[in-house]
């Protein structure tokens, strides 16, 4: 992210917490549908679904980021589908999330990256009046 410009991010829920990611990676948001499980796939891959004729891998970001949900917000009702050209190797991929909240504009001054661990999948924490939103990188979950 350019430290000089604002960025629009999609805010979504996983369990009790709020997360966000840069909207430039997102193609669309759809209702969760039937998934076909794939034998011997990585634990974070929930399965695949047909999205307008394209086989799309569906990933559980809770497993990728080791998020332990505590009951609240476990609807698993939306799929954030990534733009294959922006999100890596060109393959169709989406994340299953509990809720989609809103698109917000993040000012570089509201992003705190001093709290980062060694996890390359976390870009920082967005400070807001009503709490924090963890900014994650979709490229961490392939």
TrEMBL record:
Transmembrane segments: none annotated. It comes from the Archaea. This is Chemotaxis protein CheW. It comes from Halobium salinum. PROSITE patterns: CHEW. InterPro entries: CheW (IPR039315), CheW-like_dom_sf (IPR036061), CheW-lke_dom (IPR002545). Residues 6-142 form the CheW-like domain.
């Amino acid at each position: 992210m350019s430290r000089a410009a604002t960025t629009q991010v999609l805010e979504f829920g996983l369990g009790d917490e709020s997360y966000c990611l840069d909207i430039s990676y997102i193609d669309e948001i759809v209702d969760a549908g039937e998934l076909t499980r794939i034998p011997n796939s990585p634990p974070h891959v929930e399965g695949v679904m047909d999205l307008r004729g394209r086989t799309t891998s569906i990933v559980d970001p809770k497993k990728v980021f080791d998020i332990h949900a505590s009951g609240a917000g476990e609807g698993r009702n939306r799929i954030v589908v990534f733009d294959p050209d922006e999100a890596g190797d060109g393959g169709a991929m989406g994340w299953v999330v509990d809720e989609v909240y809103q698109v917000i504009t993040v000012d570089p001054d509201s992003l705190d990256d001093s709290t980062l661990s060694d996890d390359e999948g976390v870009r920082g924490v967005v400070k807001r009046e009503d709490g924090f939103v963890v900014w994650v990188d979709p490229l961490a979950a392939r």
